[in-house]
Design a protein that fits this description.
Layout: E1 13-17, E2 23-28, H1 29-35, E3 39-47, E4 53-58, E5 69-70, E6 73-76, H2 83-95, E7 104-109, E8 118-126, E9 138-144, H3 146-155, H4 162-175
Parallel strand pairs: 3-8
Antiparallel strand pairs: 1-2, 3-6, 4-5, 4-9, 7-8
Length: about 180
């Protein structure tokens, strides 16, 4: 489903969307972030059978929110992709989980300053297999019980990505956890 997400110069391309999340054009990652164009992203919350969620501490190599805690995996929807494909791709790229079908959609968030002007679909996955973090994307990760995640966000909000701080309370509310 992904089409020409990088040009010959290695530049990433994203679909630009309108207020209704309809594609109205394409722009480079650099242009989208520099000018605040609306675009798309996914977040996946991976929970284990014990109820803990896998959190990632973003790599210091990331251009946005380096070194901050974030969802189990997250990323942009590349030009030509749909949300479900991007969720599966990001799971594989960031934490080594390969699925035959996309995880379950949990909630949708409209583009806003906290999301970096991204429309976001949040997915939820129950998973007890191995996790292999990509060091280009993630410094490290850990399994954390939801109540502890909420406590950490409340006590040290600057340690977390703005989008995660927006999304996490909604995930907790929907799942009636922590």
């Amino acid at each position: 489903m992904s089409t020409n997400v990088k040009d010959a110069g290695g530049e990433e391309w994203f679909d630009v969307v309108d207020v209704h999340d309809e594609v109205v054009g394409r722009a480079t990652r650099r242009e989208v972030h520099a000018t605040g164009l609306w675009h798309r992203a996914v977040h996946v919350m991976v929970f284990n059978a014990g109820g803990a969620v896998f959190l990632q501490k973003r790599s210091m190599l990331k251009d946005l929110s380096p070194g901050l805690w974030d969802s189990s995996c997250s990323g942009h929807v590349d030009a030509g992709e749909d949300y479900d494909f991007a969720a599966g791709r990001e799971l594989g790229e960031e934490i080594g989980i390969c699925l035959e079908a996309p995880p379950a959609r949990c909630l949708r968030v409209d583009a806003c300053a906290e999301t970096g002007w991204e429309f976001v679909w949040v997915y939820r996955l129950l998973y007890d297999g191995p996790i292999k973090v990509n060091p280009q994307e993630i410094q490290y990760g850990e399994w954390v019980l939801p109540a502890e995640v909420s406590h950490r966000v409340a006590m040290r909000p600057d340690d977390f990505c703005p989008s995660f701080k927006l999304i996490w309370p909604q995930v907790v509310s929907l799942a009636k956890i922590g």
